[in-house]
Amino acid sequence: MKYISFLLLFGIISAYGQSSSPVTVKYVDLKKYAGLWYEIAKIPNTFQKHCVKNTTAEYFLNEDGSIKVINSCTDEDGDRDEAEGVAEVFDKSSNAKLEVSFVSFLGIRPFWGDYWIIGLDSNYEYAVIGVPNRKYGWILSRNKKMTDDQLSAAFDIIKRNGYDVKKFVMSEQE
């Protein structure tokens, strides 16, 4: 009976841990965050399956408060592929929760995805991006390579936020 009670309690605790969302950073200065970022690692996903190397994200602040997003990568044919989208700040008290859209029909954006900044170096040298359900995740850097200490700190953030580190794959940057 004690064993069954323990399993039940463990199951409840585990379920609760999985249902809680990742924790974002306290505040993001969007002016400092804007600019070019290199993808260092990611959880593989269908919308990036054609990207084989040199994946980047570039952010530009718009006058209306939105953020222009340009994601680009080199595809399997060696061509540069680019997707332009827009991000909107969802939580204005922290600027750490955004929603991003890359689909527009006649100026209407019917599809939005979460973009939560769950880790950010104090000098804005690297960032860790997540989503509430942990299906997607990225490590971004201002440089094509991160130091071992930076990479270790980024993966610590990923672990603390309930992600399975084994799902992340390193991205090739030349």
* CATH arch. level architecture: Beta Barrel
Largest sheet: 8 strands, antiparallel, barrel
| Overall mean pLDDT | 90
Radius of gyration: 18 Å
Strand content: 35-45%
As laid out across the biggest beta sheet, the strand order is 1-2-3-4-5-6-7-8
- What is the count of structural domains? 1
* Head-to-tail CA distance between termini: 58 Å
Low-confidence stretches: 1-18
The CATH topology annotation reads as: Lipocalin
Label the overall shape.
globular
Helix content: 10-25%
**Structural class given helices, strands, pairing?**
alpha+beta
What's the total helix number? 3
Order of helices and strands: HHEEEEEEEEHE
CATH level 4 superfamily: Calycin beta-barrel core domain
CATH class reads Mainly Beta
Strand segment count: 9
Offer a few descriptive terms.
globular; Lipocalin; eight-stranded antiparallel β-barrel; 9 strands; 174 residues; disordered N terminus
What does this structure look like?
- With 174 residues, the protein is of the alpha+beta class.
- It has a single domain, classed as Calycin beta-barrel core domain (Lipocalin).
- 20% of the residues lie in helices and 36% in strands.
- Strands 1-2-3-4-5-6-7-8 form an 8-stranded antiparallel beta barrel.
- The N terminus is likely disordered.
